[in-house]
Specification:
The chain has 463 residues and is mostly helical. Among the domains are: 190 residues, no CATH class; 79 residues, no CATH class. Helix content is 49%, strand content 12%.
Length: 463
């Protein structure tokens, strides 16, 4: 993997050590086709590589997202259109290609007007109900980026104006781009990456920094498998073997037959004083631990917990693996917010006019937002402890006269401390002598306690 074992071989080898110079990592190849083919081979033949690419995408799409900021009818229509265009599957394919190859695009297929050129910007005002036809995923091998702003003092610096997709120039407004979040701009790629940049200006494959480790993991598993095949070796020793071979003695054929019998039937009768048979068994020792250690290292390097990547129970006393999964789900939440949400918003910016026309959509979508449900759910014990903590905090605030009792109950309702509305209404009506308890229940704002406090203050309530 490393030339000169990663060091100079003289003096303080730790101080003179350098990075890998000889490796099979396709990142070092200028042949883009070879790079994409190599990543594809690994994805198609290695379960480790496939899990590294697929698991975060599948978890990000596991729970359906919610559309907020619009009325319920419109949200339902948008979700129905999302399903009818098969965007769950299309977005999954695009996100997988982005992680595997570094990027890809979705082409937005809209019924065009006569003489309309794909190089021209897609004008949302011209989209009529029923104009949207499909979203097509196009892989990176068919994409190049011809035009981009090279002025660092420009607002559109390093942003593509159009891409060439399968030989056709298409304006960026007609594409949903999964760019792989490149670290450096296209001009700097020529200098900092020695011409090994992506021709579309996309990022790098998620397998690139893990490639050498992936080779070691698979190689260790293969070596362990060969060790199993050689776990028991039979040795037959006889005197004057060279003479037997030179004369083509029948005795040599007999010894070879005995070896075959022992390997098949595990037993044979041997007659002769000058023949000895010995069987040597290999010692596996720490081989299983070594294989698992490499797999766990790959799991850690790919930011996927071993409980998810390997299906392995958490190690250590009193270990539950919850902290690892919680950190991992936080990473998935970041992926949903930074990578998936912009894609969905752009898709809905075309789906909306397709459903109701641009003018109605422009007015209806002013506050549209995408919300992803949390992947991490608290246990019932944690929820009970949190509810008790909330109750004690608000009771102390009420006892000090900081807030009123009706506000305490509202805050506890929002935090699901009360499970049934009937109990709360009885409490409000009997203990607090409030005649319109049901109206108070309806004023609870699901957006959060701060918004509720602001409403009470605006209505003149004494808090």
């Amino acid at each position: 993997m490393l030339a000169g074992h990663g060091a100079s071989g003289s003096g303080d080898r730790g101080a003179l050590q350098h990075a890998a110079q000889a490796t099979s990592n396709p990142y070092y190849s200028n042949n883009f086709w070879y790079r994409w083919q190599e990543y594809t081979r690994w994805y198609m033949t290695s379960w480790e590589a496939r899990k590294i690419i697929d698991i975060p995408v599948d978890d990000a799409l596991r729970l359906p997202f919610e559309i907020t900021g619009v009325d319920t009818v419109l949200a339902t229509e948008l979700l129905s259109a999302y399903e009818s265009f098969d965007l769950d599957r299309q977005n999954r394919r695009a996100l997988i290609q982005e992680r595997l190859y570094g990027g890809c695009c979705q082409t937005i297929i809209v019924k065009g007007e006569d003489g309309e050129n794909l190089r021209d910007c897609l004008v949302p005002e011209r989209i009529q109900p029923g104009d949207l036809e499909a979203f097509n995923v196009v892989d990176v091998s068919l994409i190049t980026r011809p035009d981009y702003d090279q002025n660092p003092f420009s607002a559109g610096y390093d942003k593509a104006d159009r891409y060439i997709v399968n030989g056709v120039e298409a304006d960026i407004s007609r594409l949903v781009v999964f760019d792989g979040s490149p670290l450096i701009n296209r001009a700097a790629m020529n200098i900092l990456q020695n011409f090994r940049y992506n021709p579309a200006g996309f990022g790098e494959s998620k397998l690139a920094p893990l490639y050498d480790l992936l080779v070691r993991v698979v190689g260790t598993q293969q070596a362990a498998y060969h060790l199993v095949n050689l776990s028991s070796v039979l040795l037959v020793a006889t005197r004057k073997l060279m003479s037997l071979e030179a004369t083509e003695s029948p005795a040599l054929d007999k010894l070879e037959e005995i070896c075959r019998h022992i390997s098949i039937y595990r037993g044979a009768v041997i007659d002769g004083d000058d023949v000895s048979v010995q069987q040597h068994s290999a010692s596996f020792g720490s081989v299983p631990e070594l294989v698992m250690s490499f797999a766990q290292l790959l799991s850690a390097a790919s930011d996927i917990p071993a409980t998810r990547f390997l299906g392995q129970a958490p190690g250590g006393l009193n270990a539950t693996g919850e902290s690892d999964l919680q950190n991992y789900y936080n990473m998935i939440d970041s992926m949903q917010r930074l990578r998936l949400k912009p894609v969905l918003l752009k898709q809905f910016s075309v789906i909306g006019p397709h459903l109701m026309g641009f003018e109605r959509w422009k007015e209806a979508s002013k506050s549209l937002d995408i919300v992803f449900p949390p992947l991490w759910n608290e246990s019932s014990q944690v929820k009970a402890e949190n509810a008790r903590t909330y109750a004690e905090i608000f009771r102390a605030l009420w006892a000090e006269g900081i807030i009123k009792r009706d506000v305490v109950v509202k805050e506890l309702i929002q935090r699901d401390v009360f499970q049934t509305g009937e109990q709360v209404e009885d409490f409000l009506a009997e203990e607090m002598d409030l005649p319109n308890a049901s109206e108070l229940m309806q004023t609870v704002d699901p957006s959060g306690p701060l918004a509720e406090m602001e409403k009470l203050a605006a209505s003149g309530a004494n808090i």
